[in-house]
Amino acid sequence: MATSFTRRSAKIRTALLCGIVGMASATPAFAQDTGDVQDPEIENNQVIIITGTRQANRSAADTVAPVDIVSSEELTNQADTDVGNLLRIAVPSFNVNTQPISDAATLVRPANLRGLSPDNTLVLVNGKRMHRAAVIAFLGGGIADGSQGPDVSTIPTIAIKQLEVLRDGASSQYGSDAIAGVMNFIIKDDAEGGMVTAKWGQTYEGDGDLYQIGANIGLPITDNGFLNLSAEYGESDATSRSVQRDDAAALIAAGNTDVANPAQIWGQPNVNDDFKSFVNFGIDFTPDITLYAFGNYAERNVDGGFFFRNPTNRGGVYAGPLVDPMTGDADPNGVPSVLVGDLSNTTAGDCPAGIPLTGTNGLIPDATILADVSADPNCFSFVELFPGGFTPRFGGDLQDFSVATGLRGQVFGGLDFDLSYRYGKNSVDFFINNTINASLGPNTPTSFNPGGYRQAENLVNLNLGHEVSLGSTGSMYVAAGAEYRDETFTTVAGDPESFALGPLAQPTAAFPFGQGFSTSSNGFGGFSNNAAGSATEDTKAAYIDVEADLADTVTLQGAVRYEDTKTFGDNVSWKVGGLYKLSDDFRIRSTYSTGFHVPTAGQANVINVTTQFSNGMLQDEGTFPLFSPAGLIVSDYVADSAANGGLGLARPTLGPEKADSFTVGLAGDVGAVTFTLDYFNITLKDRISRSSTINFTDALLYLAAREGVMVTSTTTAGLLAELSTANVINRGDFTGFEDLTSFAFFNNAFDTRTQGIDFVSNARLDLVDGGRTQATLAINYTDTTVKDADATISATRIRQLEENLPNWKGFLNLTHEQGRVRGLLRANYFGSFYEAHLDDGTLPIDAEARVTFDAEIAYEVIEGLEIAAGAQNLLDTYPTRNPWAGIAGAEYAVTSPFGFNGGSYYVRARFQF
Hints:
It is a single chain. With 913 residues, the protein is mainly β. It is built from 13 helices and 42 strands. The chain has a 22-stranded antiparallel barrel. Strands 1-6-7-4-5 form a 5-stranded mixed beta sheet. A hairpin with a 2-residue loop joins strand 26 (608-614) and strand 27 (617-623). Helix 9 crosses helix 10 and helix 10 packs parallel to helix 11 (716-725). The chain is globular.
């Protein structure tokens, strides 16, 4: 029953599952048997693909653009449990980093295809557009700064039938985002059988323990349908590849026994209660009409580390004025001190200005004055609460939900149709622990809920298609359709203490306020009420495409798509492509396309404040919309002439980015070997990104001068107070901004050209009688050049864009099956790369290339039950050591393309029935 349903619906599924116009076809990358996906009339290794084509029974060998085909076995026969980590050693042009201490990017890690931003890759599930994650990667290592892409880690690996990665521009087929390519996750649709798995692993260092259990089952729904259910649950522990910071080591040497060792952790975060589920359903109403539905629910808790707050010099918490070493009174010729707050509401001068730092190397607070401060209820210093400093723990609770349903089939004797609706929502609620709101003094909580983000999307899609006979010359498939999509991005306010201006930081010069203590939850300030709210964007689109097979040797394709957005205008994208069969064994192909990507509602409207390491110190950086009160001030400051106190640069704007993409390739079969060689060239204009930072205090001083306001303050809080008093600004519009030293915004500041080569070869080898051996060699070369960058993009950021990902990446994969035994050996090559450590161009790491090895051996104990053991990074290879490790404690280059945890091993049991 299951087989008849799957086979009978194969042509309709293949033609319509993509959901939008299909035009670009594929080449075999990982050509393995894929069960029901493969039509019985297609020869072995001629895998049927559905991504980028609407032509029924289009094999991966006869398409005009390359597609990597990753089987479910390729994803599950590995040590890791995160889909992103699995893909980076399965798809050569795919990259994802560990992202430690990267703000919200630690929770949803940005991934890159072909070296472009994460939101330049369109992700589909069963051919339908996947919704974005709510997280925006404000700290993305340069390449992903400001990106907002989907969270593919919410898809359970046990649910994946195969993954198809279209490596070609596809905006004319799928709309905005499909510039680098398309990743289409095909979900299992078996109506019988199932699988249960259990996995446990650990790093060679003895940390990072992980476990995962999963199950998949297929159930028949009458004689004409299926219900396929998948679920996974697991956890993974944090790792630490850290050394003691130099400043923390100096504190310990000076006698501060309260400093942790290490004071700051660099490693993967804790991932707790990681639950993922997927449901896939289909039933034939009639032989020609099918109802389908699928959806997912996922949730997890992620908890990671932040930067160490030094108890002698963290601004706004510990760092005090120069004071007399005997009295603690302010003295411009004195010694550094630890800040003291005066809690009195009636009398000034009850407390010393600071606790002098004396003792060894001037790092220990004077014991006598510290005792006096501690004994006086009107005086307070944070060395009383955290004498060894503190390191916040930051994380979030994530939830992801989606549901899609539709009808597809054939009517009127040959008109294919697919009418569908999809809803998706992703939510994250942040938390930060082991930190303070310094302005609240001793009354501060040490745990906060700073608020959260929500991303919700609706998608309605209609696709029509009809095959037209061209007589003896071949056939042509004509498709057309329309789509409506909307998205809502919501910022949820945090608890009041997370953004409060406490009594030690109110922005006025009158005592007892304005004492220099920072506001908001330290490390990740809460979203204030004025930052909370929702923003929407919608898109309407229509398309037409044609794909023709001519004379058995020529395939031609063309597509045009019109898309109209609410905020950013309209766009027409198009694509042409062709394939010519030189012989039965060799084919050449080429495409040319235009593409576009519009800013998301989140990118255009988000307000965020985070803490970043800069010039050896921690500072608060803000990101705000260009149209916001703060954004307008900075825009004027950027655009005004130097003679008027501005920077004299072009006024920042935010709009769509547009692309031109060209590919040309050769595919062939030589005996038992298949290969593809493809060149790609993508020119991306007006790239959407988060700008480099601009000094916010300078922008406020510029505003004061422009408006003729005489100011005396040099701090952000003081300037905001004076400008508010002068009625130049509305003070409520700047709540939570009091500690900002720098400011960034989303704009279109530069162009890029990304070009490269992909080579993939598969071979089936007869090495041992009765055995089956397969070899896959995949190599990617990608080079990005930044062009026409304006002055809001720093030289460091440009080098990150060009060099943070390795130019060369590849792997050689060998698998062998012999009776009940199965083995895998893989060699992975990661080329050299550049890291601006801590995003600081004065701290360069020129990391060397590395080769890692993975291995697995499995044995079928009884029919259906397999036990496997393996190792990832078998030889315990690490990236280049960090020459600046003492500054913040990172032992290795943290943006390494293969991580920095070293080797790990695992065992797995899998039962199939």
